[in-house]
Amino acid sequence: MMKSNLNYIISLLGVLFLGMQFQSCKHKEGEYHSINDKIESESKNYHGTTLSSEAFLGDIKTVEVTEGAHSFLIPERKSHIKSYACTECHSKPLNQMQGADSEEYQKAHWDVKMIHARELTMNCITCHDGNNMNELKSLTGARIDFNKSYQLCSQCHSNQFQDWKGGAHGKRIGGWAPPRVSMTCVNCHNPHQPAIQPKWPARFNTQKVLERK
Amino acid sequence: MSDKKWFSLNIGKEHKASSKCGCGNASGSCNSHDSGGNAGIGEERVKDGFEQVFEVKMDRRSAFRKLTASLMIGAGAVSTSCSMVAGDEAKEKAQIDWEEQFKGNYKLMTDDEKKATVDRLVRSYQLRTGKNIKMSSKDAQEGVLFGYAFNISKCQGYMDCVTACVKENNQDRNSQMEYIRIHEMKDGKGLDFGEADDNYYHEVPAEGHFYLGTQCFHCDNPPCVDVCPVQATWREDDGLVVVDYDWCVGCRYCMAACPYDGRRFNWSTPEVPEEEINKNQHYLGNRLRKKGVMEKCTFCVQRSRSGQNPACVEACPTGARIFGNLLDPNSTIRWVLENKKVFRLKEDLGTEPKFWYFMD
Amino acid sequence: MRRLKVFKSLVVDSMRVITHGSKNYHIWMGFLSFIMLIGMYCYSIQLDQGLSVTGMTDRVSWGLYISNFTFLVGVAAAAVMLVMPTYVLKDIDFKQAVLIGEGLAVAALIMCLAFVIADMGGPSVLWHMIPGIGVFNFPSSMLTWDVIVLNGYLFLNISIPFYILFRHYQGREAKHSVYLPGALISVFWAVGIHLVTAFLYQGLQARPFWNNALLGPRFLASAFAAGPALIILVLAIIRNSTAFKIEDKTIKKIAMVVTVAAQVNLIMLISELFKEFYAPTHHSESAYYLFFGLHGKSALIPWIWTAITLNVTATVILTFHKLRNNLRVLYFACVLLFIGIWIEKGFGLIVPGFIPGPYGKIAEYTPTLIEIGVTIGIWALGAFLFTILAKTAINIELGKLRYKGDN
């Protein structure tokens, strides 16, 4: 009697052990230690996909940007600026159009209020060139195209610039698939008041409240 | 409490901070979550199922009908399909219902079978509502492994992602099902979810808080998939963890197995107003569900498989959400993983989520 | 061919036996039928409206049904405590009790299956689980293991007593060589069903309250206390209401089993409490919620302390020979123990596993009346089945039910 008992125990353990074997190799991706290993090894011979996010871009115009190792598209800006080119009004250098006696000129840009850094640091001419209103200027006086205004921002916001180039800051347009079209700084931030204003959440879940009462 | 060097739990003690408004905003603009703000909603007592049913006046006949209804479904389908009187459409509908009831597991279907079931579902919707939907059965593409990164310094708690998700994925409006939760975390408390609030309603971002979103993390070693007794949920080759709603038996074992609160159950028949239904659907994604089955975030499979971003990524106004192909060395998601300090939730469980968090 | 004829006669005879009885018997069966009807009505509402009529939510996604299922697996497994001494160790004292124990196991298993089905969101597609026509995710899913072991155990517990009773019905002795292998397997199988059911929970890394190595052994200990306790009570009722003779010695021996199991169960409880509260970690929150409440939420406190009080009282009573050997006190202790473990293995185990949720949120669980209706309906079904099985078995054993020959 004892012997048959023993046999049963052994066979039962055998079945259990076999089960465990199945259990431990049920993940077919068992050859990888972690998801990072998997990503590394599987992307070694990455040949791209047939997918494209072009169809989801809509009809926006883009310009190509190459910064360091990164090359991607950003939305074209100039056509979205009201009354570009600026020289249509700014026919003379800025200092000649300013001043109390200039009755002939309308007051303009009254709605632009600067809340960007301290006055000690920044004013209009930090970025705008009074002698060439159609373009922006860098701190050293180099010309910067309105389409590439990020070059202006990156002078101070170098960390954000790094992240933006890599894709960690900002937002993509269309989809994840190539071509990469990223929003540029001014697509989200008003350059004159770059801080994002607080607002109310888009929704409130009343069911959750009931559940947790 | 704070000078203790060991871990201790705060049991039973109502925290002072939580009785006030959580955002610490002194201006009074913060509308507190628990009090005032939703008192009106709280008062509206929801009846439990028993009352709902027993308070309904029901004559014996309808009670009897209810009792036998479940048994009659199958028989009804047969009799309608054989009946000479029933119209062609009714017959076709019964035929579709019959075939849908006894179809196999989507995971094991051939491409033709997949197409057939998708066609049936489209036709069935057309017969029922007279409207057309587009349903895809697009498979995973080679060389794609989806990954997601979430910037906890950028998220401001606007919940635009939640709204977009609900709309895109045809989630039940009655139970206010949401795949995404945004947790309002207190600065200086680390990742203490116990102190966090995921149902705030006040101006955001609240001072002294940061926001962290959770949803299904599409684990590479998903515990939910292992436990399913019928393989109604599985991991696709592009890393998406999906559910075949028609194969699910509704045992909710996967829900118990998920450490991330990633799964949702249809406790009653989900309802979406006809005009709000997203008609661009995928079999494994946002097609309309039925009662008694699991569902979850699929990274918007109907969008992501064609190269588009998931709805939450697209809706986020802060750019806190980054989505892409982990196998593409030049993708933005890869740049984030390689250059930012990333972490994942509950990494010690060995589930290998494909959802990373990072800070600026 | 002859066997078929005997079987037909057995069915006919047992039909006659179970439809005839004393007034009390009819009242009892009528009462159970009434409860079952209520349960069916509640279930029809659940079928119609979905599981939203229960108290379960996305937060606490298993409730009363799975709690009862877990407990009843234990009750079913407990039959082994009678089978082993009777068939394997040849202890005759248990012989009268074992058929009753196995009948109880059958009824408990049917109830288990009924509870699982009641808990399903889509009972109409349960065929998806049947190997061959559906997809059976074996061995990956512990639920499939559970399906196998429960059905296997059900088969064993139907076939062994059936064989014995079938032989006795014809006035012959049952052959050891036929039922002994089955009895031996069922001993291991009983341990298996409860261990596998524990693994169902134990294997979830998402739920630290369940994910501990003691869960399985504690399941066994509590099952071997609650199950035989129920058997003692049932035997007491049968002794008093039928001519079936059960000796005091038998009941006292079973009481011994109950005592040891209850003591082991208490030791394990202490070990668990020590682990959770001596060095509490984040993973102890569920235990804190269960025993002391968390963030002002305290729905389970009265339940668990009632359970612990009942368990401790019962165990103390059972430990003293003088008290245990007094049958009235013994029955009282068994009732306490049964209720105590029902709470502990049900509400005290399943619900706190979900609380707090994965992100620390607490949503409490209270079953609705519909859920309770279905639950008592299934219990009534179990009692109904057991009464039928026991009545037939007792009549065969008493010799009242005999095959009338081949004429």
From TrEMBL, chain A:
<keyword id="KW-0732">Signal</keyword>
<protein>
    <submittedName>
        <fullName>Cytochrome c7</fullName>
    </submittedName>
</protein>
<feature type="domain" description="Cytochrome c7-like">
    <location>
        <begin position="77"/>
        <end position="158"/>
    </location>
</feature>
<dbReference type="Pfam" id="PF14522">
    <property type="entry name" value="Cytochrome_C7"/>
</dbReference>
<dbReference type="InterPro" id="IPR051829">
    <property type="entry name" value="Multiheme_Cytochr_ET"/>
</dbReference>
<dbReference type="InterPro" id="IPR036280">
    <property type="entry name" value="Multihaem_cyt_sf"/>
</dbReference>
<dbReference type="InterPro" id="IPR029467">
    <property type="entry name" value="Cyt_c7-like"/>
</dbReference>
Automatic annotation (TrEMBL), chain B:
<keyword id="KW-0411">Iron-sulfur</keyword>
<keyword id="KW-0479">Metal-binding</keyword>
<dbReference type="Pfam" id="PF13247">
    <property type="entry name" value="Fer4_11"/>
</dbReference>
<keyword id="KW-0408">Iron</keyword>
<protein>
    <submittedName>
        <fullName>Prokaryotic molybdopterin-containing oxidoreductase family, iron-sulfur binding subunit</fullName>
    </submittedName>
</protein>
<feature type="domain" description="4Fe-4S ferredoxin-type">
    <location>
        <begin position="239"/>
        <end position="268"/>
    </location>
</feature>
<dbReference type="InterPro" id="IPR017900">
    <property type="entry name" value="4Fe4S_Fe_S_CS"/>
</dbReference>
<dbReference type="InterPro" id="IPR017896">
    <property type="entry name" value="4Fe4S_Fe-S-bd"/>
</dbReference>
<dbReference type="InterPro" id="IPR050954">
    <property type="entry name" value="ET_IronSulfur_Cluster-Binding"/>
</dbReference>
<dbReference type="GO" id="GO:0046872">
    <property type="term" value="F:metal ion binding"/>
</dbReference>
<dbReference type="GO" id="GO:0051539">
    <property type="term" value="F:4 iron, 4 sulfur cluster binding"/>
</dbReference>
<keyword id="KW-0004">4Fe-4S</keyword>
UniProtKB/TrEMBL annotation, chain C:
<feature type="transmembrane region" description="Helical">
    <location>
        <begin position="372"/>
        <end position="394"/>
    </location>
</feature>
<keyword id="KW-1133">Transmembrane helix</keyword>
<keyword id="KW-0472">Membrane</keyword>
<keyword id="KW-1003">Cell membrane</keyword>
<feature type="transmembrane region" description="Helical">
    <location>
        <begin position="219"/>
        <end position="238"/>
    </location>
</feature>
<feature type="transmembrane region" description="Helical">
    <location>
        <begin position="147"/>
        <end position="166"/>
    </location>
</feature>
<dbReference type="Pfam" id="PF03916">
    <property type="entry name" value="NrfD"/>
</dbReference>
<feature type="transmembrane region" description="Helical">
    <location>
        <begin position="300"/>
        <end position="320"/>
    </location>
</feature>
<dbReference type="InterPro" id="IPR054823">
    <property type="entry name" value="DsrP-like"/>
</dbReference>
<dbReference type="GO" id="GO:0005886">
    <property type="term" value="C:plasma membrane"/>
</dbReference>
<feature type="transmembrane region" description="Helical">
    <location>
        <begin position="329"/>
        <end position="352"/>
    </location>
</feature>
<feature type="transmembrane region" description="Helical">
    <location>
        <begin position="178"/>
        <end position="199"/>
    </location>
</feature>
<feature type="transmembrane region" description="Helical">
    <location>
        <begin position="97"/>
        <end position="118"/>
    </location>
</feature>
<protein>
    <submittedName>
        <fullName>Prokaryotic molybdopterin-containing oxidoreductase family, membrane subunit</fullName>
    </submittedName>
</protein>
<feature type="transmembrane region" description="Helical">
    <location>
        <begin position="25"/>
        <end position="46"/>
    </location>
</feature>
